[in-house]
Amino acid sequence: MREHLRQPSTLHVDGVTVRFGAVTALNHVSFDVEPGTIHAVIGPNGAGKSTLFNVLTSVYRASEGSVRYADHELTGMRPHAVAGLGIARTFQNIELSHTTVAGNFLLGRHQQMRQGTVAAALRLPGVRREEREQRRAIEKIAEFVGLRDRMDVLASELPYGDQKRVDLGRALAADPSVLLLDEPVAGMTRHERSDISALIRRTHEELGLTVVLVEHDMPLVMGLAQVCTVLDFGTVIATGEPRAIRSNPAVIEAYLGGVPTTAPTDKATT
Ligand SMILES: Nc1ncnc2c1ncn2[C@@H]1O[C@H](COP(=O)(O)OP(=O)(O)OP(=O)(O)O)[C@@H](O)[C@H]1O
């Protein structure tokens, strides 16, 4: 069952509408995220990107429409059940646990643990073997995100850029097939942005993950994404390759009417 779900599948977003009272945050939003792609969701402030992420992870329930992955309807599922299907996320505002880097990775891996807490309390042999396996697994993740020598440091004591790496490692620890990244370089220095951009690319190329990326940093988006979906006032105004998106009149108008400094441009930092 679990192996089946680890097979890459298309994430279908179909007619999703979310209303908050009189505000329609998402208005019949439809697009597909093809397996093995980096798919960016962009749009001016208030366009509905965070709301969409919260629907994809079942934190919010759509008023209408559906989200399907690997023959499963995600709408109405509990968030941990969505995670169990292999859909992991990082957070715009870092939400790390008050423990070490390794502890955060272990918590992310928790779903993978086979042995129960009673067996763990009794220190049964199978538990010790599993603990060793988990330790090896999180060492690999620490290596991958560049924190191998920081595993026993409290995550809260790390610089901001490294905390973002912990957040990414925690998501990877759940062994996902789809990774949802919510503004992964927000608040970072130019150097940190370039590092994280390279890490996202490796996540896609070396681990083969499907990545859904919400980000305001247009050079980063244009350099990484194969497909962009553009939201404006809760409506999809364009979906396509970055090159086509950059010259799409509706997209240019949406940005020029909103936040000119973040409008899609040709220059990529990646
Ligand atoms: N919990 C909520 N209650 C009421 N209105 C909300 C709620 N969450 C979002 N909204 C409204 O829905 C719309 C979309 O907001 P959302 O945060 O999804 O946009 P966004 O594209 O993520 O914006 P930003 O780029 O600034 O993060 C906005 O008008 C916002 O004010």
Automatic annotation (TrEMBL):
Molecular function GO labels: ATP binding; ATP hydrolysis activity
CDD domains registered for this protein in UniProt: ABC_Mj1267_LivG_branched
Identification of the protein by name: Amino acid/amide ABC transporter ATP-binding protein 1, HAAT family
GO CC terms of this entry: plasma membrane
Source organism, top-level taxon: Bacteria
Domain ABC transporter: 11-258
One Pfam family linked to the record: ABC_tran
Keywords: ATP-binding, Nucleotide-binding, Transport
InterPro entries the UniProt entry points to: AAA+_ATPase, ABC_AA/LPS_Transport, ABC_transporter-like_ATP-bd, BCA_ABC_TP_C, P-loop_NTPase
